[in-house]
Amino acid sequence: MTSLWRVLYQINPTFFPHGPDYIPPTSQLLDQPKYQIVYHELGLLQAGLSVTDSKSPAMEIERARSMSPAKLSYDKSTPDAFLKMVRNEPLTRKGCGRDVRHFEFEFFPSTISYDVGDVLEVLPSQNPDLVDAFIQRCNLDPEAFITVCPKQRGSHLVDGSKSGQALPINLKKYVELAMDVTSASPRRYFFEVMSYFATAEHEKERLEYFVSPEGRDDLYQYNQKERRTVLEVLEDFPSVQMPFEWLVELVPPLRKRAFSIASSPSAHPNQVHLTVSVVSWTTPFKRKRMGLCSSWLASLDPLQGVTIPSWFHKGSLPAPPPSLPLILIGPGTGCAPFRGFLAERAAHDTSSSAAPIMFFFGCRNEGDDFLYRDLWLSHSHDGGLLSEARGGGFYVAFSRDQPQKVYVQHKMREQSQKIWAALSEGGAAIYVAGSSTNMPSDVMLAVEEIISKEGGVAREAAAVLIRRLERDGKYHVEAWS
């Protein structure tokens, strides 16, 4: 770029009145924040705005999240329902290295209708002590009432007295509900803006190095690899005092977490169930990290009566009609939606007329993480929906219980004739759910091999048939990272 400026200066010196090597003051290099914080006097609020009447949890969430710079036009701010946990049950053996929980919630105060295969989104709560530490570190007034509004074009500020389109919200509540200060890592531009507000020279130099091309790898090691939170980064650079406008714009938003629903509205009225793996890992510098939402849910005691804001929406697994034969592949927590499928079909299987289900489940060890073992086995005997007598089947791959790893795709190949018969004669649909790493592609490859082998067609023709199944709504995948 320096060479370009000098060539342009030779062509026309008026391009650079101060010369091509002139560097403007740093204050001129930093853009202005795109959002303005309007502070409201409490006395005027109580006189003119009904703040006390709008302190319900639903309204506070709606106000905070609708003001957030990260708000998307299609994103619904107001929760569909509030849930209360009534059951928190470990599904894995204690000490096995994995923690998977079964959660049951009741609707509070009113029930929301949903279908099997739907997705539940949960807004997690942040550690209140860490939220208080962030507010104190940034010299913010937790009792202030604010509105967050975009600046108008031409850098004109919004008149605070006329910004009543959105009701003001308590500053601490806004941080709790809209800004992820306790789990998410900031992006590179956060460090660049910090460098302009650092008053200690060594901190300024380190921040400028982080955002330089030479410091890119070190920033990655410091920030992303260690998953440092916004609060931790700010505490590492104590001389930095960023204006709240910049924090509102640059702190990652507090995002909802999505889970496949593991229950059936017919079998579990007024309830919704989840199967959740509690996320934890160790960073390269041996720092213990926990997933915000999963660890928060796991810490809840059903007797506490904590209300959980939630949203419901359609996922990638449409609810199948009872007459449709199913081939389900769900290793690990991928079994969650299929627990709902099975419960829903069993609830309406009064005369044993429902179509059969073949279910391929996978886990590491039979004694450690065989999730919902008794449920699957109970339906695989005595004419149950998973019984071979009904044309179904339950097949488990324990990947670590023998020297050579065995996965669900291996069990599928063992049942290739039965799968082909279900597809070609029974018109079955395939549903796949679980980790998005290699499993979905490995399963599709296994289906392709089965169609080619049992149908006597080339692999290319088998791939075409799979695409036809997808177009006809008979091959569905729901995968997550």
UniProtKB/TrEMBL annotation:
It holds the Pfam family NAD_binding_1. Keywords: Cytoplasm, FAD, Flavoprotein, FMN, NADP, Oxidoreductase. SUPFAM superfamilies: Ferredoxin reductase-like, C-terminal NADP-linked domain (SSF52343), Riboflavin synthase domain-like (SSF63380). Its cofactor is FAD. One of its GO terms (molecular function) is flavin adenine dinucleotide binding. Residues 78-325 form the FAD-binding FR-type domain. GO terms for cellular component: cytosol. It comes from the Eukaryota. This is FAD-binding FR-type domain-containing protein. It comes from Linum tenue.
